[in-house]
Each structure stands twice: as C-alpha cells, then as structure tokens.
C-alpha cells in the first residue's frame, strides 16, 4: 500500500547523486520505522507514465519513540527515469508515493564484529547499518570496505568520515578508488576477487566476522562473495544486495527452460484476498496478477529488488533471473513473481507469507 509523503529536504551529495528526505506524518510514524538496510519503494508519475523504484534508506534507524527519518540516496542512472527526475526536477514540497520500508538485507543492532564491502551507491543501506549499530551497541565493531571511481563521485563522504571521528576504535574504513590515486590507503584500481583475497585477511579475521554485507554492482558483489568463500567465511553470514544489473547477458537462469503449457491458470493471495485468472501468453505471474490487482507489490520488475517475492503454494514455475532471493529462500519455496512463468496448468502463489 502506498502513502503520500512530502519531500522535506534535497541535498546534492555528489555531481550525480542527491539525498532526499521525506517528512513522515505522525499517523504514519510506526509504518515508516525501518530496520537498518531496508529500502523504500516509491511510485511517481512522469509524463503520464507510472514509475516505481526502490531506494535504500541511509539514515540511522530511529529509536522508540523518536520520529523515523526517511532519507534515501539517489544516484543518477543513465536513462533512469526517476533518478533523472529526482536530480533535475524534484523539489522540496513535492509529494511522492512510498510503501512502508521493506527488504531482508538488514542488520539489527547486536554485539559482534560486522563488515561490509560496497561499491558506488551500495554505501546507502550500509551507512544506515553502521551508524545505527555503532550508536546503539557499544560492543559492536564495523569494518567498511568501499570502492568508487573518484573521491568526488563518492556518496556520503562526510557521514562516513564522521563515523571515523566518532568511533575511532570500533569503526574501520578502507577506501579503494578505481580511477584516482589516493593520498593514503590503497593504490588505485578495481576491487576484484584477487585484490579482495589479498586484502581481507590483512584487515580482519575473515572467518570470525559475525555478518558480512555486500552491496553494489553485480560484478563487485560476486567478486566479494567468491573471495569470502575462498577465505572460509560461513555462507550463512554473508548477505548481499545487488544494485544495477548491467545487461541481460549477466542473468543467472535459475531453472532450465521448460515449454509453457498452452493454458495456465494462476491463483494468488494478496492481503488476505485470493483471486484466480488465466495466464496470458508469455506474461510473468506478476503481470497476470497486476491485470486485476493493481496493489500487487513490485518495483524493479527486473529480478533485483525482491519486492515481488511470493510463496509458491502449488504448481511449477520457471524463473528467468534472480538477483534478490537467497538460496535458502528459493529452497523454501519463494519465487520472484516478476520473473516467474507458469510451467504447469495450475499455479498458486501467496504474497502474504
Ligand atoms: S519487482 Fe523487483 S524483483 Fe520483482
């Protein structure tokens, strides 16, 4: 369900990125409390076309009974309709529709040693995690390894520097710039599998870290995941969120292609109400549901954000690509409705689980 929120502040944080803060009306205070790492799905109409995007919340999570602060980072994406709009036209006072914060890439404050490897705008959810954790949990430590192109393109430089000043003993920062030499720190170049495999053991005891958070472009997240696996990190402690999947060529098919039946029927439950509809040729389960239920949840429609996650109650589906669900989730029967196509004549899914 979408709620109208008013833009209360827009800050230019790099040449191609802004931080947008939304005012939360008092009656929606509980709805918009977030767990560090979650994102907001926004909906806006540009030129008569409805656009949906998900943006991670960068602000620390508010303690009860404080007001939630909804500040998101938005970086301009080439050809990205909402990011272009946000950077060029969005103004304080404008209203944007947003769903309650969601996402399972989260770190609720707890004692322990945590680390993140992020690239570009992947810093956004991790900034919320680190700042909330360090402020609330004196027995927690956080190591942030970030990569970007240049210092001037690096988002939230001041906020991260502030964490370093405030928590010199508990916050460790390593920055790698791919296109610029740095005065101190790592030599320039991308963070790839080889570099990470050499760097990580020198920074921290990899296998003892309680939680790893990988966030950024697909290439970096895959490289970091591979390096952590090679260094003995427990798979269950590695969490990831991918921003931007460059092209179709990088898709990871999750099932072999199976011919679709000539006629399928989809039953779906959403917000406690069920419906049943014929599946039209080639369409995804999400599109089938959307024809009758405009409240069906989605944002990217590209298999990346996980908003359309549903439980497969019965039948079989083919998922084209999946950059959002963890193996445990697919193993437990969850699918991405935007990427799933009916393989059996009857399919039933449940968005409420
Ligand atoms: S809508 Fe984003 S993964 Fe399906």
Lay out the secondary structure.
Blueprint: E1 2-14, E2 17-23, E3 39-46, E4 49-56, E5 70-75, H1 81-88, E6 95-99, E7 112-119, H2 123-136, E8 140-148, H3 157-166, E9 171-177, H4 193-203, E10 211-216, H5 218-230, E11 238-242, E12 264-270, E13 273-279, H6 285-290, E14 309-314, E15 317-319, H7 327-331, E16 334-336, E17 340-342, E18 346-350
Helix pairs in contact: 4-5
What attributes characterize this protein structure?
about 350 residues, 6-stranded antiparallel sheet, 7 helices, about 20% helix, globular, binds FE2/S2 (inorganic) cluster
In brief:
This protein has helices at 81-88, 123-136, 157-166, 193-203, 218-230, 285-290, 327-331, and strands at 2-14, 17-23, 39-46, 49-56, 70-75, 95-99, 112-119, 140-148, 171-177, 211-216, 238-242, 264-270, 273-279, 309-314, 317-319, 334-336, 340-342, 346-350.
Low-confidence stretches: 248-257
Mean pLDDT: 90
Provide the succession of SSEs: EEEEEHEEHEHEHEHEEEHEEHEEE
Helix content: 10-25%
Major beta-sheet overview: 6 strands, antiparallel
Query: How much β-strand is present in the residues?
Result: 25-35%
Named once each, the bound ligands are: FE2/S2 (inorganic) cluster
Question: Structural class of the secondary elements?
Answer: alpha/beta
Strand order of the largest sheet: 4-3-6-1-2-5
Quickly count the helices: 7
Describe the fold and architecture.
With 353 residues, this protein is α/β, with parallel strands linked by helices. Helix content is 19%, strand content 33%. It has helices spanning 81-88, 123-136, 157-166, 193-203, 218-230, 285-290, 327-331; strands spanning 2-14, 17-23, 39-46, 49-56, 70-75, 95-99, 112-119, 140-148, 171-177, 211-216, 238-242, 264-270, 273-279, 309-314, 317-319, 334-336, 340-342, 346-350. The strands form four sheets. Strands 4-3-6-1-2-5 form a six-stranded antiparallel β-sheet, covered by helices on one side. Strands 9-8-7-10-11 form a five-stranded parallel β-sheet, with helices on both faces. The model is unreliable at 248-257 (pLDDT under 50). The chain binds FE2/S2 (inorganic) cluster. The site of FE2/S2 (inorganic) cluster has 14 residues, from loops. FE2/S2 (inorganic) cluster is lined by residues 298-308, 324, 336, 338.
